[in-house]
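// run 5 | inverse folding | seed 20
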């Protein structure tokens, strides 16, 4: 089993009610679906995010689990969670990785492909 057996899908949403463009605060929610297509259960141990705004300012976020959980995802199952980010520009990107542990104790890094944070109907 390798990181290709973990499929990650991301949906983002601009949160106008939590944003304040006059103060350079743009809030975004993201929902992530993690599907285990492999033959072993995996436990999500930690996350590492690289958040980049439109001014090329980079913020890194690391920590255990996601939204306070370290879920175990069985073969053929999925785990879905939502979280958010606030950046100082209208556009930004997020990418990173999850550290996963297989049933046999092996650890692997699962990449999270870059995704766009942007207001709806905007072009960048």
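// decoded
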């Amino acid at each position: 089993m390798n990181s290709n057996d973990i499929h990650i899908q991301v949906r983002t949403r601009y949160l106008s009610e939590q944003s304040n463009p006059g103060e350079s605060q743009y809030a975004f929610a993201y929902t992530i679906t993690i599907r285990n297509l492999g033959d072993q259960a995996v436990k999500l141990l930690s996350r590492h995010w690289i958040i980049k705004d439109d001014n090329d300012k980079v913020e890194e976020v690391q920590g255990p689990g996601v939204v306070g959980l370290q879920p175990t995802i069985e073969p053929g199952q999925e785990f879905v969670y939502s979280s958010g980010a606030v950046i100082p520009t209208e556009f930004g990107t997020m990418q990173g990785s999850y550290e996963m542990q297989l049933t046999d104790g092996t650890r692997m890094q699962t990449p999270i492909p870059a995704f766009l944070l942007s207001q709806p109907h905007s072009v960048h």
